[in-house]
């Protein structure tokens, strides 16, 4: 397809929810897979909901995830500015067009008047007062008032909003790529405010004007925007742009892990997993992010890609470029996608396993540093190699591998009581001596020395290895015991053996 132009259009009202990141990802994949452009547009015209730092958070999240826009604020492009707050004049001009052509009108009703009307309707048993063709005639606006009256009110500086004039009796059909034909009647749409009293456009007007001016070919966004699309189509009609209107694809909801209801930010807090890409701290709010929880961005992306889409094959692991190849809007599911955090962890583990140890080393250095432990990249690389099949997230390299840098004592006392017989201490001192004599401290030579000791004493692996492990790492679990010893170092191993034997004697 030619000239594919898609956009991700978040409002900077707080941290970017993981569902928003999925929207960005699908837009990105579609653009890349079709030789198109991926535009970032910041929809910041709602001053009441504007949150400082949110735009920077969004950009950092995209960057971390590797979903880089081709155009956007800070990047530029031929269709800018890309922040709606910098496009006020454009919206004013287009709103004026609609007023002049009779598709929109000024409305002077104050909040108090609207409330009063709502109350009166309620008293009469109507709980859904709507400003539309059936009611606009008795409100204060450019349709109910004469032209002169309207002009005078405007000239006097009376605050007003601009509303879309929605005529009843129209059918609105949307050929949604995911959902097929979706139909609305224009009676379902009220005379929405397009321009607020503060002179800023509402989301609907700005969104439609920008999608048109930015030549957006496909609008790929969350399902919660589907009802608004009816209004958007009416706006395209009013502007005379219906023929070049973008195609729509509304993405399925992300559901709670139990499948009951929409995944909310509170679910993350309540169930103890991230539903945001990065940590966020704003006011009272502290939200957990995938990055800080120790996820690799590729793993999170792979996980997200499958929340609402599947390739139709058994393959589950896809790099970003493989996703670009495989992704298509036709394979997006209609039904909601259950957020299964165990699956996210599984993905992360797969990516940890397939990442070379040396590449994981810097992250492992950082994880240990967060606990005040300084390790060099070589050691970090060894730890990465030994533990990566056993962990799901980066912080677990420390929680499962603390003993690589610290003397943790006997953590599994029950096992120590079972495996350690104080009477055997002299025999194990011999093992310690053998290890002290190893000249080249590597796993193979450590193993040979241990095997020689077992042959001399007649003890088997089942008797010797648990004791070695307990004394050095406090538990009998873990990766290859000889590799652990090699990583810890000879001097440290010998000291830990003495201390460990002492500690087990006292149990
Ligand atoms: N600003 C809207 C949002 O925050 C954009 C919706 C759309 O993509 O049209 O999600």
Residues in helix, %: 40-55%
What quaternary form is this? single chain
The residue ranges in which pLDDT falls below 50 over 5 or more consecutive positions are: none
Structural class estimated from helices and strands: mainly alpha
Proportion of residues in β-strands: 5-15%
Query: End-to-end span in angstroms?
Result: 73 Å
Strand adjacency order, main sheet: 3-4-7
How do you describe this structure in short?
The protein has 507 residues and is mainly alpha-helical. The chain has helices spanning 18-33, 54-65, 88-100, 111-123, 147-155, 203-213, 226-239, 265-271, 297-305, 320-326, 341-354, 357-369, 377-387, 395-399, 413-419, 425-436, 443-457, 461-473, 481-488, 490-505; strands at residues 5-8, 37-40, 104-107, 161-164, 171-176, 180-185, 193-195, 218-222, 247-251, 254-255, 280-282, 285-287, 337-338. Helix 1 crosses helix 10 (320-326), helix 12 crosses helix 13 (377-387) and helix 16 packs antiparallel against helix 17.
Can you walk me through this structure?
- By secondary structure, this protein is mainly alpha-helical.
- It is 44% helix and 10% strand.
- It has 20 helices and 13 strands.
- The chain has helices at 18-33, 54-65, 88-100, 111-123, 147-155, 203-213, 226-239, 265-271, 297-305, 320-326, 341-354, 357-369, 377-387, 395-399, 413-419, 425-436, 443-457, 461-473, 481-488, 490-505; strands at 5-8, 37-40, 104-107, 161-164, 171-176, 180-185, 193-195, 218-222, 247-251, 254-255, 280-282, 285-287, 337-338.
- The chain has a 3-stranded antiparallel β-sheet with strand order 3-4-7. The chain has a two-stranded parallel ribbon with strand order 1-2. Strands 5-6 form a two-stranded antiparallel ribbon.
- Helix 6 (203-213) packs across helix 7 (226-239), helix 9 (297-305) crosses helix 11 (341-354) and helix 18 crosses helix 20.
- The termini are far apart.
- Bound molecules: glutamic acid (GLU).
- Glutamic acid binds at residues 9-11, 43, 203, 207, 221, 225.
């Amino acid at each position: 397809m030619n000239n594919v132009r898609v956009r991700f259009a978040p409002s900077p009202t707080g941290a970017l929810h993981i569902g928003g990141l999925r929207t960005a990802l699908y837009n990105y994949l579609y653009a890349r897979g079709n030789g198109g452009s991926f535009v970032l547009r910041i929809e910041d015209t709602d001053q009441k909901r504007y949150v400082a730092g949110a735009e920077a958070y969004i950009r950092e999240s995209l960057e971390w995830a590797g979903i880089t826009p081709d155009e956007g604020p800070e990047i530029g492009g031929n269709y800018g500015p890309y922040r709606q707050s910098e496009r006020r004049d454009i919206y004013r001009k287009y709103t004026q067009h609609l007023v002049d052509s009779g598709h929109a009108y000024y409305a002077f009703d104050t909040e108090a008047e609207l409330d009063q009307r709502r109350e009166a309707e309620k008293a009469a048993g109507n709980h859904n007062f709507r400003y539309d063709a059936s009611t606009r005639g008795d409100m204060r606006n450019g349709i109910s008032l004469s032209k002169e009256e309207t002009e005078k009110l405007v000239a006097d500086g009376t605050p007003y909003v601009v509303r879309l004039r929605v005529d009843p009796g129209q059918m609105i059909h949307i050929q949604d790529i995911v959902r097929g034909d979706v139909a609305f009647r224009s009676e379902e749409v009220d005379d929405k405010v397009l321009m607020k009293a503060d002179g800023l456009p509402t989301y609907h007007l700005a969104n439609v004007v920008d999608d048109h001016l930015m030549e957006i070919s496909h609008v790929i966004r969350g399902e919660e925007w589907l009802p608004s699309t009816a209004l958007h189509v009416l706006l395209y009609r009013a502007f005379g742009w219906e023929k070049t209107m973008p195609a729509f694809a509304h993405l399925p909801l992300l559901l709670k892990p139990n499948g009951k209801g929409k995944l909310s930010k509170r679910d993350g807090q309540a169930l103890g997993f991230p539903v945001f890409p990065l940590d966020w701290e704003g006011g009272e709010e502290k939200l957990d992010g995938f990055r800080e929880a120790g996820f690799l961005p590729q793993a999170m992306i792979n996980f997200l890609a499958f929340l609402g889409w599947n390739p139709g094959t058994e393959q589950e692991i896809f790099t970003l470029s493989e996703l670009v190849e495989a992704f298509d809007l036709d394979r997006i599911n209609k039904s909601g996608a259950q957020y299964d955090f165990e699956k996210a962890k599984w993905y992360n583990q797969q990516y940890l396993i397939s990442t070379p140890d040396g590449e994981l080393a810097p992250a492992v250095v950082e994880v240990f540093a967060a606990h005040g432990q300084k390790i060099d990249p070589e050691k970090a690389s060894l730890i990465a190699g030994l533990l990566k099949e056993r962990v799901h997230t980066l912080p677990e390299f420390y929680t499962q591998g603390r003993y690589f840098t610290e003397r943790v004592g006997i953590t599994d006392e029950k096992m120590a009581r079972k495996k350690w017989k104080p009477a055997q201490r002299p025999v194990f001192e011999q093992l310690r001596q053998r290890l002290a004599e190893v000249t080249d401290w590597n796993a193979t030579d450590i193993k040979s020395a241990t095997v020689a000791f077992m042959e001399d004493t007649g003890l088997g692996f089942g008797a010797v290895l648990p004791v070695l492990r307990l004394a050095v790492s406090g538990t009998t679990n873990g990766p290859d015991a000889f590799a652990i010893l090699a990583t810890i170092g000879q001097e440290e191993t010998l000291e830990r053996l003495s201390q460990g034997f002492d500690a087990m004697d006292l149990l």
